[in-house]
Amino acid sequence: MTFKHSAKLPPGLTSFVSVSTSSRLYLFGGLYNKEKESSDIYYADIRTDYSLSDFKLTGSLPFPVTIDKVKAVVTPKYVFLVDITDTSSYKNVYLCKASINANGSLEEFIVPSKPFVLGDQFYSQSL
After folding, report:
1. For the segment 81-93, what is each residue's pLDDT rounded down to a tens digit?
2. Per the domain annotation, does 92 fall within a domain?
3. Domain membership flag for residue 7
4. For residue 52, is it within any domain?
5. Is residue 65 a contact partner of residue 39, using CB atoms and an 8 Å limit?
6. Which of 19, 79, 107, 109 has the fewest Cβ atoms within 10 angstroms?
7. What is the pLDDT of residues 32-49, one digit of tens each?
8. Element (H, E) at 126
9. CA-CA distance, 114 to 111, in Å (whole number)?
10. SS3 for 13?
C-alpha cells in the first residue's frame, strides 16, 4: 500500500478529534497554533480513489473541542461527541449527537443544556 499526500489540514490546526463517514472525513475543534482552542467543524470528501478533497469549514460547536477532552464515536446513523468538561473528576459529561445524512453530511449537533453527571459508583465501575 502506498500513501500519498492528498489534502492540506486547515492552517495551524492540531489536536483535533476526527471521524469518518462513508464519504467524508470530519475534524472537530483542535488547537490553532498550539494555543487557541477551536470549536470549528471541517470536512473533506473522500474520493473514489480514497484521496481527500480540500477541507471546508462546515460549522461549529457551542464549546471548544480538543483531543484530550473530547472523544468521538461514529455509527451508521450518528456521530457522537463525548465532552468531558471536568477533567479533574471526569463526572460532568456532555453527550452530543448529529445525524449522518445519506450523502455523508452531518445535521446540526444536538447539545444538552446540562451535563450528564456520572456518579462515583457508576464511574468507578465503568473503568
Report:
1. 887 665 565 556 7
2. yes
3. no
4. yes
5. yes
6. 107
7. 998 898 889 999 999 888
8. helix 120-126
9. 9
10. strand
